[in-house]
Amino acid sequence: MGAEQKKTNKFQAVLFLIAVPLLFAGILGFIIFTLAGEEAREVVYSIPVAGPLIKPDGEVARGGLESRIEQLKEENEGLNREIAQLVYEIEQKDQLISELEEPADSGEEPAAEAEEEEPAGDRLREMVRTLEGMTASRAADILESMEDRQAALYLDAMRTSERSQILARIDAERAAGIIALMSE
Predict the structure, then answer these.
(1) Which residues contact 14 (CB under 8 A, 6 or more apart)?
(2) Buried residues in 123-137 as b, exposed as e (16+ CB within 10 A)
């Protein structure tokens, strides 16, 4: 019985000297880790050996996701502007086709006039495309520096969504005057 009691005493000694303090430290560390803020967790996650063991598998760095989301939003806005511009160009070309088809029965004279007006129309479309590519506040600043008739001409050629965003950033009285010119 003496040898068996000695083995039990050694086991109890190892248990009380090593296992119980490790268990206590683990429980205490878990409680502190749970109550700690995000910064403290990031410090623990950065520990070379323990960090990968502690860090949950599904957790992703939020900063990287947020920047990626912003990047995708900007890309989406750019693509939406490009789509809107292409739709506008299609509408303009459809309108030009319908105008060219009408006078084809009566003669060639109106077609010649359309060819003369085309360079001015191209420049207008190019300027409108440039303004639509800017932020609404920047485009509003530029249009505010123009005469009302010229600003009305550019705004009238824009898509409704772009026009409304720009007009919202122009002084209310000035915007009302421009809208009145556009409705003439």
Answers:
(1) none
(2) eeeeebbebbeeebe
DSSP the chain: -HHHHHHHHHHHHHIIIIIHHHHHHHHHHHHHHHHS-HHHHHHHHTSTTHHHHHS-TT---HHHHHHHHHHHHHHHHHHHHHHHHHHHHHHHHHHHHHHHHSTTTT-SHHHHHHHHHHHHHHHHHHHHHHHHHS-HHHHHHHHHTS-HHHHHHHHHTS-HHHHHHHHTTS-HHHHHHHHHHHH-
What one-letter code names the amino acid at 38?
E
pTM listed for this prediction: 0.37
Domain boundaries, the chain: 11-57, 63-183
Token look-up 């300027």 returns 127
Say how far apart CA 104 and CA 96 lie, in whole Å: 12
Residue 115 — pLDDT band, cuts 50, 70, 90?
A: very low
Residue 2 has what pLDDT?
Answer: 61
Residue with more model confidence, 48 or 2: 48
What is the fold, at CATH topology level, of the domain defined by 63-183?
Annexin V; domain 1 (1.10.220)
Task: Determine contact, residues 97/104, Cβ cutoff 8 Å.
Answer: no
